[in-house]
Write a structure and sequence with these properties.
Helices cover 88% and strands 0% of the residues. It is mostly helical. The chain has one domain (9-89).
Length: 90
Amino acid sequence: MKKLSISSVDDLVHLCWLLCCRWVVWGIVIELCFGLLSLAIHRYGPNNLSDLTIFLIILSYHFLDVLAWCGAFYLSFRAVAYHAVAKSAQ
């Protein structure tokens, strides 16, 4: 595998766009899921939900948080690798 080379400011801007765009889109999707979960808690209230339901909602919060970080890093590193391969093919 070749080293990632950034030869101009345009390459750097393109690489940052690849990283940030994927990070932001993934974050928006996960935040929408967080919003739906918190909406369920506020709509039905903790008094109307069983302890198991609240536990599962909180557990899903943590699962989505881990998924968001892992997915964001995966998409970012994949973008860097794709950029490096595309750059070396030129």
